[in-house]
Amino acid sequence: MGRLLIAALAAVLTASIAAAPASACYTGLTIIPTAETVGAGQYAIEPQLDGGFPARGADTRIINTQFGFGERVEAGVDYDLSEEAPTRVLLNAKYLLAPDTERAPGLAVGICNIGRDVKSAPYAVATHGMTVVRGHLGVSRIEGANCWFVGMDRALTDRVVVMADYLSGAENFSAVGASYQFSERFGVLAGALFPNTRGEETRFTVHLVFTAPYRHADEE
């Protein structure tokens, strides 16, 4: 799976949208981060729409951005355009401690949800490619509570990736999603979020992801 397709999987930690401010975007599955970055000299601009099922219009509108600084560092600034958003600007950063190899999983640490009137959320995550799927496992601290998360994804074709993930905690979600890469620079990620607490609202998320290099490899 190439770096540009990974960028198409970049998603907000949308598990917090229904009950708390949205988190800044990082490379990951539908609701969890993964141990990889957007790629050296790459950027992604990602309009996001979220809402409740049955679909009756989006109540969350965010423009996510992500930039790769070398192969190990990424950082982003997101703009929450939703009505009554507690803060409009959110930041994040991730550092890849080690890439995924045949012998050992990739490891990354990061922090997201950096902004006024919100609590930042540090996390650590491991990613490892197996025969059929890639697996992801990690821990985070969200709104002052310790959480764990797990997920997996599989590339069905060069253009299609399916995924499933889970974030612990009564206020959080499990999710299923899929991405389709229309071209080298444009992809779509769509997913459904199922609340961990019975009776809460099931939600949808849609991300339109535009990627491109902001500098050539020989300029790194």
Overall mean pLDDT stands at 85
Strand order of the largest sheet: 1-2-3-4-5-6-7-8-9-10-11-12
* Helix proportion: under 10%
Main beta-sheet annotation = 12 strands, antiparallel, barrel
Q: Which second-level CATH architecture applies? A: Beta Barrel
Reading off the top of the CATH hierarchy, the class is best stated as Mainly Beta
Structural class: mainly beta
Shape descriptor reads globular
| Cα distance spanning the termini | 22 Å
**Total beta strand runs:** 12
Q: Which stretches of 5+ consecutive residues score pLDDT under 50? A: 1-24
CATH superfamily: monomeric porin ompg
According to CATH, the fold-level topology is: Porin
SS field, number of helical segments: 1
Domain count, please report it: 1
Structure in words:
With 220 residues, the protein is an all-beta fold. The protein has one domain (3-219): Beta Barrel (Porin), CATH 2.40.160. Helix content is 3%, strand content 54%. Strands 1-2-3-4-5-6-7-8-9-10-11-12 form a twelve-stranded antiparallel beta barrel. The longest helix has 6 residues, at 3-8. It is globular and about 45 Å long. The chain starts with a helix and ends in a 7-residue tail after the last strand. The model is unreliable at 1-24 (pLDDT under 50).
